[in-house]
Specification:
Layout: H1 10-28, H2 43-54, H3 60-70, H4 74-81, H5 87-104
Helix pairs in contact: 1-2, 1-3, 1-5, 2-3, 3-5, 4-5
Length: 105
């Protein structure tokens, strides 16, 4: 998958951040790993974002909406970034925070 070509250059950075979130989530949500119940609300938004990123033809607006839905819960991001969380969950929290930042710039 290649990032979409955005004239303003803003969606490319957001797209890369969104792909990083998907990769990070794959390490947390595995068949062998039962994630904490606090992360379960992310399953559906992650799936929808992944679908939007893989859509043909790409729809940047739909991808932005799905990404915004995913990072809407700031408390969850803060919880995932806490130092007492396992490394993979902290990494997921950090990628969510980064995506949130990219969507606002």
């Amino acid at each position: 998958m290649q990032p979409p070509n955005d004239q303003a250059g803003t969606w490319e950075g957001s797209w890369l951040a969104a792909m990083t979130v998907i990769k990070s989530a794959q390490r947390v949500f595995t068949p062998d790993n039962r994630p904490p119940s606090e992360l379960i609300p992310l399953v559906e938004p992650l799936s929808r974002l992944g679908d939007a990123l893989r859509a043909t033809p790409p729809d940047p607006e739909e991808s932005r909406r799905r990404a915004a839905d995913l990072v809407a819960d700031r408390d969850l991001i803060t919880w995932a970034c806490r130092p007492d969380q396992p490394r993979d969950i902290r990494e997921l929290g950090a990628t969510l925070a980064f995506l949130s930042m990219k969507l606002t710039t």
